[in-house]
Amino acid sequence: MEGINISTKLFAAINKQIGFELYSGYLYKSMAIYCKLNNFKGMAAWLNMQAHEENEHAEKMMEHLIDRGYKVVLPKIDEPPSNFKSVTEIFEKAFEHEKHVTANIHKLYKLAVAEEDYPGQIMLQWFIKEQVEEEANAGEIVDKLKMINGNLGAIFMLDHQLGMRK
Ligand SMILES: [Fe+2]
Ligand SMILES: [Fe+2]
What we know:
The structure is a single chain. By secondary structure, the protein is mainly α. The protein has a single domain, classed as Ferritin, CATH 1.20.1260.10. Helices cover 78% and strands 0% of the residues. It contains five helices and no strands. The protein has helices at residues 6-37, 41-67, 87-114, 118-148, 152-162. Helix 1 (6-37) runs antiparallel to helix 3, helix 2 runs parallel beside helix 5 and helix 3 runs antiparallel to helix 4 (118-148). The chain is elongated. The protein starts with 5 loop residues before the first helix and ends with a helix. One fe (ii) ion (FE2) binds next to helix 1 and helix 2.
């Protein structure tokens, strides 16, 4: 009987994260729909771009596993929430979500270290750095929305600013 390949555990965990990255994209898409419906077109554009980035994250992990001969099986993606009360709630949820992703990435890294998987560590280091940015970006918007405190004029100014994201 074959023993369990030491990398199999890590690869399976990364495969699971691929599903979570795709879910992240799905979540941001759902948030973008709410924003667009409520005429926050800049925020919708920002969130759509974010959704696109999440798909790229999934792609990056997929490529890593496939390059190393692992048969990636795309997991089922959960239905994201679609009822939001406000754009403030959306960005608070986005911020919370990114913190959750960061925790997942750190766990994966810990596993890659424990299994002495060097290529996996390097691949995950990119994500560790990326998550610092992801949290900072979402956190900044939450902070601004708190300062704005429901002032519609200021919300639309922020909407315009977020719509400029390249
Ligand atoms: Fe991501
Ligand atoms: Fe993200």
